[in-house]
Amino acid sequence: MMELTSKLGFTSEDEPLLKQALTHSSYVNNHVGVLDNERLEFLGDAVLALLCSQSLYVKFPLLAEGQLSRLRANLVCEATLAKIAKHFDIAKYILLGKSAAGSGGYERPRILAGCVEALLGVAFLSGGLARARQLFDLFYHELMTEVTVSWSEADAKTALQELAPESIKYALTHESGPDHDRTYRVEVYVRGIPHGVGEGKSKKQAEQAAALLALGKLRGER
Predict the structure, then answer these.
(1) Which among 112, 76, 78, 80 has a CA at the least distance from the CA of 93?
(2) In the predicted model, what is the mean pLDDT of residues 87-109?
(3) Reduced to 3 states, what is the DSSP secondary structure of residue 191?
(4) Contacts of 137 by beta carbon, 8 Å cutoff, 6+ apart
(5) How many CA atoms lie less than 13 Å away from 171 in the CB half-sphere?
(6) Long-range contacts, 7-10 (Cβ 8 Å, 24+)
(7) 188 vs 151, more confident
(8) What is the largest CA-CA distance in the chain?
């Protein structure tokens, strides 16, 4: 934990909240008195939306509200947050229940994204918006330099089809959870090559998330 604390600019005083930010609800079920990260995730989600909106407002002074909203949606989506989590190797600090850990929980975009949001919540509680801005800038340094107006496509699947008119296939690779709260995992193939895996509460959401990852990969190849 000390390594992550230092890497993200926190202090030892923040570590109790940091531990909570990385504690999934599945872990709490078997550990009495331990708090999960859902409240911090709720707070961090709002902080992230504000800081991302401010950054885009300044970076793109001529864009309309609708375009800014779509850019923000791409930057704060589950797939992007999971990418950030992987870049900072956050998964190895996450506390999961045995079942979640055994079913690939450390790789699930939804869990990784929730931890990133919760960490932003901790930063806000630790030092207000100024501290949260520091962590946001650390998380989004590369993305904010790469983001362009073309990221504002409303529909990632449509944008992917336009960018890669070759045959695109979506394959449902996994389903989990009870009937009333299913999670779907979809992999997208471009010219028969896997280009992204997305998760969502519906097949459509999972396909959109996968398409967004594929878009990023294809743009990086060009």
Answers:
(1) 112
(2) 88
(3) coil
(4) 144
(5) 11
(6) 7/88, 8/88, 8/119, 8/135, 8/138, 9/134, 9/135, 9/138, 10/122, 10/123, 10/126
(7) 188
(8) 53
Q: What kind of architecture, by CATH, is found in domain 2-147?
A: Orthogonal Bundle (1.10)
- pLDDT attached to residue 48: 97
Q: d(Cα 32, Cα 38) in Å, to the nearest integer?
A: 16
Task: Report the alpha-carbon distance of residue 27 to residue 115 in Å, rounded.
Answer: 14
Fold classification of 156-221 is Double Stranded RNA Binding Domain (3.30.160)
Please tell me the pTM assigned to this model.
0.71
Strands (E), 119-192: 168-176, 183-190
Domain boundaries along the sequence of the chain: 2-147, 156-221
Question: Tens digits of per-residue pLDDT, 75-93?
Answer: 898 888 998 999 999 999 9
Mean pLDDT of all residues in the chain? Answer: 88
Q: Which two tokens stand for residue 175?
A: 């389903």
| Separation CA 30–CA 36 (nearest Å) | 12
CA pair distance 49, 18, nearest whole angstrom:
20
The set of catalytic residues is 45, 117
